[in-house]
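Re: Re: token formats

Sure, here are both.
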Amino acid sequence: MERGHGQPPGGTEARENRSTNGVVVPTTFAENGGGTRHPIGRRHSVALQGSIDTFALDDVLRLVAGASKSGRLTLRGTRGEGELVVRDGYVLGGSVTTDERVDEPHELVFELLRLDDGEFVFESIELDEFSDAEPADVALVLESAAVLLDEWREIEALVPSIDVLPAIVQA
């Protein structure tokens, strides 16, 4: 098989396509001897990745739900990290490092939405985790998380830092 123009020797081509909204779609390919091209190291999964600065987490979740995807969405930011497990476009569960007590889907998404920066990766893979979990509709999870986020922003407007201890002042 002939090498394509600009393709390095050995039959591999490496490049990264970055769309205008910051989502990175890996396009590293190898020829498998039969001329068929597949992503290196991932014959059955495709990662969607990017920055939440340019592609908001709620948009990523809507995209995954709209496509009825299954897999793991991982988000890493300076304040923490977390992951959501999704099956057929429904949230099953996950975890966050910001609050170990959180386990409900809308609470997990609330914690992830509070991250100001970070990178996300969605890997479309089959998972055995959370097999007993009740699937949660992404639209309802986002709606509930948005209510919590609005309430949290009201608290943040009144309390400048969680490190500040309130004191009762007698008039």
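Second one below.
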Amino acid sequence: MTDAPSDGYSLPVYRNRSTPGEAHPRAPSPESVRIVPLGGLGEVGMNCLAIEHGDDLLAIDCGVTFPDRTFGVDVAFARLDYLVRRRDRFRALIITHGHEDHIGAVPYLLREVAVPIYAPPYAMRLIEDRLAELPPPERPDLRPLHPARSFGVGSFEIEAYTRLKAGDEGV
């Protein structure tokens, strides 16, 4: 039996069958990989996925969605507080391609935490344009991401590969 996580992101709490009523978190092994969808799961837009391994955290994409303007909201993005609260372990943001639902929230994230951003060259230019509109407090660390070139970030080894989507140079 499980209980709902208190902050919306925690691991489920499993009841110990040997001690009725005593709750304990499921302890991940040091080699475990924890995947936390922060947005874009079951919806169009707001793509953002956190991946944790050991003491390291990566995020893949940081996008927006354009909700119905009925309530006066122009854009919405994932709950970035998960990443901000873990800033000491947040190693990099990896961008897959330059669509707004994958890069649109980057300026909002960089207002809260400085983190290296790896992106394909075209997506990088689009991110630079967005950052010119909403400048972060610190100069961003933008790094090009090229297919077939691997690189390390913390305990992660990243290797991008080419994929085609709407004519951009996504990875």
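Residues 1-5, 10-24 have pLDDT under 50 and may be disordered. The longest strand covers residues 33-39.
- S.
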